Amino acid sequence: MSNNNSPEDFPNFLNNPVETVAERLLGCFFERNLGGRRMLARIVETEAYDEGDAASHSHRGRTARTEVMFGEAGYLYVYFTYGMHYCCNVVTGEAGHGSAVLIRAVEPVEGIDSMEERRGLHGRNLTNGPAKLCQALDIDLRLGGHDLREEPLRLLTGELLPGESSTCTTRIGISKATELLRRHYIAGNPWVSRH
DNA sequence: GTCCCGATCCCCT
DNA sequence: GGGGATCGGGACC
């Protein structure tokens, strides 16, 4: 992996249409510092959401919950769902436009023991779902609105590896705008939630 | 104020 | 493959 994880590695493409960003986030990293323990995870599956999209939390306009989605790119939008799960999104686009990319699956790279401890299991189910990865990386509402250039959770740029390619399909777990091809994942990657 | 349902996961079969 | 867990947001009264 050609990645030396310096702070300058923050992605410079977040201020683009959300489906473009969703694709380009594939291969980027979350670097989580938890009490001095470092975890690194590679993004392998994403979904794009924005205002014009009936499935998006920003579709009905600004609310206290979704305010972060309408802010500047590069911040974290976290929501709580089904009474017990958290999911996280990278805010994209210009301020005033409510768009974000849901991170649906990551591939553990470093600090795997720490993730396993938090999840209470090991193997494929560690991070192959949006709420699973939040539990593994200890992401909850306390990180809502967090600047992803800063500790303790940073977004670092990354690329697809030679031989890898991305695929685009319809999104998962939604009932509106089900026809849109706004789910992106790295083809064949074992950490993707569903192939 | 009340009601409904969700960008889900896990355990059981 | 199905259902239960569990709670906050948003719609409507």
Give structural notes.
With 195 residues, this protein is mostly beta strands. The protein has one domain (9-186): Methylpurine-DNA glycosylase (MPG) (3-methyladenine DNA Glycosylase, Chain A, Roll). 11% of the residues lie in helices and 29% in strands. Strands 1, 2, 3, 4, 5, 6, 7 and 8 form an 8-stranded antiparallel beta sheet that branches. The model has no long low-confidence stretch (mean pLDDT 94). The structure holds a DNA duplex (13 and 13 nucleotides).
Number of strands: 8
Tally of helical runs: 3
Please provide the ordered H/E string of secondary-structure elements. Answer: HEEEEEHHEEE
**Number of structural domains:** 1
Layout: helices, strands, pairs:
Elements (H helix, E strand, L loop, with lengths): L17 H7 L4 E6 L2 E14 L25 E6 L3 E7 L7 E12 L1 H8 L10 H7 L16 E4 L9 E4 L13 E4 L9
The protein binds a DNA duplex (13 and 13 nucleotides) through β3, β4 and α3.
